[in-house]
Amino acid sequence: MLDWHEYVGTPTLRCNRSxxxxxxxxxxxxIETWRYIQxxxxxxxxxxxxTRTIREIADDAFGRWRGAxxxxx
Length: 73
Hints:
2 helices
């Protein structure tokens, strides 16, 4: 028969192991989520920030400005 200390300790150890498992799963999920977010931010920055040269951006803006200033009447 188990002494009461051994009886109390066994569920406690199982609980501690379960908590360790939960922590390990949460840490892994956090790292995987962080990696996914970093990849998505990379795609987002590529679309937001310059993928064209300043010259191309300026030529495009100037072309639109000239087109908007035409009065075809």
